[in-house]
Amino acid sequence: MHGPSEARPVPLTEECIPMFGIIQVLLSRVRKRPAWHFTAAAFVGVGLGATLFSITQHVSWFVGWYWAVVTATTVGYGDVVPHNVIGRIIAMATMLTVIPLLAAAFADWSSSLATLHLRRMLGMHHIQAQDHWVILGFTSLIPHLVPDLLKHHPNVVLVADDIDRGHLPDHDGMELLVGDPTNPHVLAKAHLDEARQILIVGPTDGDVLMTAIEAHRLAPNSPTLAVTERANAVQALRDLGIDAVDTQSWLNTFILERLEADAAREVPPNAPT
């Protein structure tokens, strides 16, 4: 029977309960990616090595984890070392399994981040946006329009084919989606149905008409403006229920009016003017 001044030892099994709980949660969230598998396997290897080391070397569970992490990360301070054959076997097994797993995990994560950055530069990533402006198509006016547009609205998505991002401003709110704006699969990535405003431009009225018809089919309730050169194209679009203007020279004025109207709608009724 332990006296009042004696500390009751905590069984090792009770100490290990948090570790196994963490491992269970981690494994339940492993996804179908090599990096997740490598990371989870490395974490399990570190936990197993820490547990076995603490048991065989008669050290606390925390010291066992400290040794396992120092060993797995190849730091090797040398302040905690195995003192018998079984401890050295555990050390060799930990080093031969966990270190390659961590290297593979870091390599895969780095590759994923590099791929994501490349896809973002090329406009191949999936846009996640709501209440945003979408510009379908590209003309010489767009590089001059986008900076003014970004001053009023922080999220703009441009969908265009064969475009140099160097012509566009470097802004966090500017998303470039490279692809044919008449392709429904490309348009689906721009979330047209959640856009605040859709602006359609193009080198020819035929391109504008085709893009407008497809955009209106996918997002009939989203406000849409198409810019054409000829009055008959404007009338054809209006017959389809799509707002249109017949010259690009009016574009800046029209959009700024839309932005001011949007800003006015967002001001609370009791706000001071």
UniProtKB/TrEMBL annotation:
Pfam families found in the cross-reference section: Ion_trans_2, TrkA_N
Q: Respond yes or no to whether keyword DNA damage is given for this record.
A: no
Give the way it sits in the membrane: Multi-pass membrane protein
List GO BP terms, alphabetically. Answer: potassium ion transport
Keywords recorded for this protein, A-Z: Membrane, Transmembrane, Transmembrane helix
> Can you give the residue ranges of the RCK N-terminal domain?
130-249
* Sequence intervals crossing the membrane: 35-53, 59-77, 89-109
Assign the protein's first listed, main location to one coarse class: membrane
Q: Which GO terms describe its cellular component?
A: plasma membrane
Recorded hits in InterPro entries, A to Z, give:
K_chnl_dom, NAD(P)-bd_dom_sf, RCK_N, Trk_Ktr_HKT_K-transport
Localization recorded for this chain is: Cell membrane
Instruction: List the protein's name.
Output: RCK N-terminal domain-containing protein
Q: Which organism is it from?
A: Sulfobacillus acidophilus
